[in-house]
Amino acid sequence: MLELLEGSQAVARAVGLARPGVVCAYPISPQTHIVEALSGMVRTGKLANCDYINVESEFAAMSVSIGASAAGARVYTATASQGLLYMAEAVYNASGLKLPIVMTVANRALGAPINIWNDQSDSLSQRDSGWLQLFAVDNQEAIDLHVIAYKVAEELSLPVMVCMDGFVLTHASDVVELPTQEQVDAFLPPITPLEKLDIAEPRSMGMMAGPDVFTETKYLAHMALVGASKVIKRVADQYAAHLGRDAWQPVRVWGPDSPSERGGPVSAERPAQQGEIAVIGMGSVMGTMQAAVPRLKEQGIKIRLVTLGSYRPFPARSVREAIGTADRVVVLDRALMPGVGGVLSADVRRSMARLGIPMHSVIAGLGGRSITERSLGKVLTQAKAGELGELEFMDLKRDLVEGAG
Amino acid sequence: MAKTHIPFMQTGTLVVGNRLLDEEDRAVQSYQNRPSTLTRGHRACQGCAEALAARWVLDTAMEVTQGKLMVANATGCLEVFSTLYPESAWRVPWVHSLFANAASVATGIAAANHARGRDDIRVIAQGGDGGTGDIGLACLSGMFERNDDVLYVCYDNQAYMNTGVQRSGATPPAARTATTPAVGPHPGNVFGQGKFVPKIAMAHDIPYVATATVADLRDLEAKVRKAMSHRGARYIHILVTCPLGWGTKTADSIKMARLATRCGLFPVFEAEYGEVTAVTKIRSQAPVEDYLRPQRRFAHLFGAKADEAALERIRGAAERNIRRYNLLPEGGVA
Amino acid sequence: MTSATVPPGLSAPAGSSAVYHTGSWRTERPVYMSLLPPCSAACPAGEDIQAWLFEAQEAGDGYERAWRRLTVENPLPAIMGRVCYHPCQAACNRVQLDEMVGINAVERFLGDLAIAKGWQFEPPAGDRLTGRRVLVIGSGPAGLSAAYHLRMSGHEVHVLEAKTEFGGMLRYGIPAYRLPRHVIDAEVARLEAVGIVLQANQRVEDLAARAAGYDATVVCVGAGVGAHVSIPAATAAKVLDAVRLLEETAAGTPPLLGRRVAIYGGGNTAMDAARTARRLGAEDAVIIYRRTKAQMPAHEEEYKDAISEGIRVKWLSTIAEVERGKVVIERMELDAGGRPQPTGVFDEVEADTVVLAIGQDADLDIVEGVPGMAVERGVIAVDERMMTGVPGVFAAGDAAPGDRTATYAVGQGKLAARGVDAYLRGREFAAPQRVAQATFDRLNTWYYADAPAQSRPELEAARRTSGFEEVVQGLSEASALFEARRCMSCGNCFECDNCYGLCPDDVIRKLGEGKKYSIDLNYCKGCGICAAECPCGCIEMVPEER
Amino acid sequence: MFQVVIHGRGGQGVVTASELLARSGFAAGFQVQAIPSFGSERMGAPVVAYTRISTERIITREPILNPDAVIVQDPTLLRTMNVFDGLAPDGWAVVNTRESPNEVREACPDAPRAGGHLATVPADDIVREYLGRPIPSAALLGAFAALTHQITLEALAASINRLFKGKVAAGNVNSANVAYQWVLDHLGQEDAGAHGGIAHVDVDRPSTSELPIPIAGDPEVTNA
Predict the structure, then answer these.
(1) Which of B175, B193, B188 minimizes the C-alpha distance to B260?
(2) For A114, which DSSP code?
(3) Cα separation of B54 and C503, whole Å?
């Protein structure tokens, strides 16, 4: 049933359908509406057999999640921006402990200067944390992704960040469709943790590892994420099949000639080819980008969109395949490594190292700067013309920076 | 469990076991088949009172809960010496996450148990003084303020021993640590205002707060029992001797804790809902010097350069405790 | 690494640390000791006091176990519980904490309880009977003790008593108000019950003749002859010795003493004589003693009891002359060496009778002229196993060298019995090993509950002097138990579980009640807490030899 | 695709208006999208929200740069910012003010020039009367319905009743109803304002029976 829902409300309902046992969070914009809604669902009993814990910090939120997950509960939390950094120590810990926590990151910029608006600096800063990071393009994907995330997390015994652009998605009302409780129950059985605190079989979790075994634990963590790509893909396909409709994909390729309006996985779409520009990005910017494509096409600029739903693990092979023989690659990067360039660009560059295709990193929409079809069009026009630099800051106000510093 | 009057039994409840007592009056530590929740093979230093206190606390809790217990442990000596992979000295479902978050992890465990209707499984969080009162204070306070069903136990050895004896918020004035060396015009730790976490705990009006030491097992066991008889947030703060950090003989770990209480520097009491309800009176008062002198961390207070002014301030602290908690028995002499 | 693969969460099963042996860290190891407590060290009868108090502490059935443990060494607890001067208590470590443990009173409690309950000794089992026959001459404490221990060793024992009733000085030297006769009867009867044959009215004149047919003989004839000094005395003056006074009183034919009695001497016998005189009707009994109170040999308790019964003492006085109705005394003063010296100052004390309590001598008629038998300083010379110069003839008690107390006699009787046993079995006599003492500094007295001593109730003073009713009443059970529990078990594990409970490394195993503990040296780090916190000091840290 | 920008101040229900508008479009079977542009604003600061109504799936996430219609919830904004930025000359605008459309045009050069494309509504007066609180959103959406016909008054009433209950719902529906009628009554009168406020409104107040949706005294009736 289609509904008009604010993204946060939709996500809260999706999380509720997954029947978590413990939800805890600390308020930070723009994640608040999600946990507010969940607190209400727990209070009213709509979400039964669930404890909602109001904690005193994000660090505590992740810590409570760790405890609850270690005790075998399905756990949910949400955060953003500074909150994610404040919980960073526990973020790494949760993945090290192999706890299948699902956390929504309502992507937001990092200060200073303090800024509450959307970019993706926060979750991307945790790219090495050992968590899976899955991105939603729109609120429908955000809904689907939360259900998928639990299934993936629990199958892999790894924590998952579901990343959705703050405000742009969390606070936007869209027409979406939630799966039914029956559908989710059938898809997502009760959690059976690989390992948990168990009075019947007491074990010690979170032990110290010496030099003799630490490398091996990290190797295993690496291999677990490498292997996760297949699991993610399978689960996403299962989910779509289960619901009988299109749903989130770890990598989606789209062009004006795509058989489906949202595009499809690499296997179902042709890769970019000569004469085309492959545009790679994550999150809501890819919606706006897609909207800009028809006008660009009119200008003779052929675009193939590669939308990454999975950032960690990074689907390098799919990205390489999707790029195909494109003339050039433009990465729309919502996060910056100062002194280096775009965060996502670095991953893309690594995956296409031997392709010999020029790549442009476009830093776009930092701190809530609007990403417009017009600006995207401008960038791609420049790209087509070979005028785009290797690293560009979209809509940079030159007058504000020239002479500064 | 209320302490009951026990007729004269040679050693009464002063010793661990007493064959003259009825079975039900005996300490859990005296049970031949006690849980030994923290068992042999751990790598604590010789004479580690923290290891001892932890076994006491958890064995009692295991007894009370009939084995339905889960434990969250902060980073620190207790964690490091007990769980170097692949060997764990714990015989209880146990998890270590981070330094600062044991209280929150415990909250999560309790919530998970509650959500699946297993409130019969109880949760204990434990950490050292740094993990509790310094870096972990926010999580601890949150757990208290929400009145989460967790017993938090702090093993206070008065410094960051795990990292090589640096000063913590619980380090006593004048004590030498690696970061408060005994040099300069005011050697050792500063005379600050102190941070006594039990009083911070009491400020949350939680159901139960108690202090204890490793010198009085029965008192500690009774307090753990009492704590476990309450629901909600509870806190027990245990003074544990650290031979390494204090510079004491390994065999003197119990004696030093005893002297800490006998001189009044460490008050032993219970508080319920923010009010002190019981005080363990000083059985036989000792001068603070008796407590300080055997500790190398206070060596600069004695000898050729005896720091009488510092000693006087420490005496003052002991007297203040004695007055504040009414530590002397009726008649005022112990 | 012990695990084949690294588990995903790097977890480990409970208690898996057992594979890690921390015992290699140790430089000292704790060792459980059994040390000689000062009470036992001081007990002339060699009682393992700590051991039987340990049993008594448990009350109920523990009393009988305590009594049985006690009577392994001393068959006369009801008697000794009354007349022993309990050097054990003077040695008791608890004196340094609060007050000594009332061991003697507990012994008496157990002794009386045994009589009341009719507890008997276990006679030697048939397979332990040796068929050897031993003659014991004298049924005083030494003789009874020797007879008991010999019997328990499986020998046939025959006791000959010169007097009409058994007990020797217990009966004839100690007043009934201190040692009621039924108590002696009961403990003697118990000895007869295990097959010891006692015969009264058997004065032995010819040792060799009487010893014929026995494999060994123990001479325990005591020291029943009152010592005399030469004091100028008027013929009308009535002078008798304390031994006679006590003996005749005991036999029911007390001598007439008159209203005022002077007793000469400062020992326990003097106290007994004075108190007996009061009971026999003397209105005034005054003790005349050459030295000061501090030098008085009488036991403090005996002295106190005497004073509380109205007995007076003239210190630093000697009797210069006895006249009718009075004695002339000379005042003495102590010289630099603490010895009394006459001053030439005289005084008079009214006295109808003078009782001499200045010592007793052994009655050595029996050994006179026996070839090989040596008498030295008025007693029969013996070797370390109490054998006289005559092979197979042993001596014990007051007739042998050593202290003249009933308890010492019991101890000597036991020693002689061991000597006899070794002699009969042709074994080397093994002198008892002296082990390290449990001194006070070894204890951790923090662990003992604060508990001052219970004193035995005493008969009101006015009632005391009116007869020979027992003055010092036994402890009630509660009080006896209290006293028993005041024992600190010096140097001997009493299973307080401190080592077990206070080990930070969980390396001590409790083996079950009565079985004590074992230390797993694979893990013991040698911190020494167990030794430091052992209340009774029975754990010693011993350096590791590497 | 019909794109609407709503300007107002924090606390005036701008975000709610955006959602009500989207919801009303959704009720009519359209694809919709409502995006509030959040700041760290508190009560009183300027707020803008965007609503798209379309027959096709809406994939863009950009802010609306060239709206088809602008709703101005607070008249004070007219002279502090260009609320009509990007609006096509033949675009639509609803302004909460007692001024006449031409008075608005005078102050704002980018305001719709075309006759009948700019409606001014004394929405504050209306909601003061029918709602009792200064949240003019529903009234302005009522006016918007009358002006643009992009949504129906019935759909708006249904959306209001979905979001609110009881007296608040009834007050908002009534306000929307009255404003709707106001626009019908005044559309094309480019110089007609409501300078007399609600008193002026009262003079020409239509009888309840003439309103598209009967005025509800009893909120239960409205909810039903």
Answers:
(1) B175
(2) P
(3) 12
Q: What's at C141, amino acid-wise?
A: P
Mean pLDDT (whole number) for C15-20: 94
Is any Cβ of chain C less than 8 angstroms from the Cβ of A223? no
Q: In this structure, what are the phi and psi dihedrals at residue A42, rounded to the nearest 5 degrees?
A: -70, -45
CB C147, CB C188: distance < 8 Å: no
Q: Does D220 touch chain A (CB under 8 A)?
A: no
Find tokens 């340094």 and name the residue. Answer: C96
Residue C4 is predicted with a pLDDT of: 54
* Domains in chain C: ranges and CATH: 19-34+493-543 (3.30.70.20), 38-119+443-486 (1.10.1060.10), 126-224+362-425 (3.50.50.60), 226-359 (3.50.50.60)
* Lookup: tokens for D40: 């760290």
Distance CA B242, CA B252 (A): 10
CA distance C101 to C39: 10
* Cα(C11)–Cα(D120) distance, integer angstroms: 70
| Structural domains of chain A, with CATH | 2-243 (3.40.50.970), 251-401 (3.40.50.920)
Q: Please judge whether D57 and A261 are an interchain contact, meaning their C-beta atoms are less than 8 angstroms apart.
A: yes
Q: How much is the pLDDT for D195? A: 73
Using an 8 Å CB-CB cutoff, list chain D residues near A175: 26, 31-33
Cα(C315)–Cα(C303) distance, integer angstroms: 13
Query: Positive or negative, the Cα torsion across C145, C148, C149, C151?
Result: positive
CB contact under 8 A, B107 and A59: no
Query: Which CATH number covers residue D98?
Result: 3.40.920.10
The better pLDDT of the pair D201, B259 is held by B259
Q: Distance (Å, rounded) from C-alpha C495 to C-alpha B26?
A: 13
What pLDDT is attached to residue B4? Answer: 39
For A277, the token pair is 């520009």
Rounded-to-integer distance, Cα A265 and Cα C21, Å: 57
Structure letter (DSSP) for residue C309 = T
User: For chain D, how many structural domains are there in total?
Assistant: 1
Please give the average per-residue pLDDT across A155-178, as a whole number.
96
> pLDDT, tens digit, for every residue of D26-36?
999 999 999 98
Residue A300: how many other CB atoms lie within 10 Å = 9
| Range 319-378 of A in CB contact (< 8 A) with D | 370-374
In this structure, are residues C71 and C49 in contact, taking their beta carbons and an 8 Å threshold?
A: no
For C347, the enclosing helix (H) or strand (E) is strand C340-350
| Candidates A165, A174, A292; nearest CB to D33 | A174
Task: Tell me which residue range forms the domain holding D176.
Answer: 2-223
**Biggest alpha carbon–alpha carbon distance for chain C:** 113
Residue written as tokens 């004589």?
A: C273
Position with higher pLDDT, C531 vs C229 = C531
What is the C-alpha separation between D64 and B83, in angstroms, rounded?
Answer: 58
Whether there are 3 or more C-beta pairs closer than 8 Å between C and B is yes
User: Which residue is associated with the tokens 């409690």?
Assistant: C109
| Angle, helix D137-148 to helix D153-163, in steps of 10 degrees | 160
pLDDT(C480) > 90? no
Q: Do chains A and C touch (3 or more CB pairs under 8 A)?
A: yes
Helix (H) or strand (E) holding D71: strand D69-72
Hey, what CATH topology would domain B34-325 get? Answer: Rossmann fold (3.40.50)
pLDDT in tens, C68-103: 999 999 999 999 999 999 999 999 999 998 889 999
| pLDDT above 50 (res B247) | yes
Per-residue pLDDT tens digits for A343-392: 999 999 999 988 899 999 999 999 999 999 999 999 999 999 999 999 99
- Using CB atoms, pick whichever of C8, C12, C13 lies closest to residue A98: C8
For residue D19, pLDDT beyond 50: yes
Instruction: For residue B316, give both structure tokens.
Output: 């003052």
Q: What is the pLDDT of residue A170?
A: 96
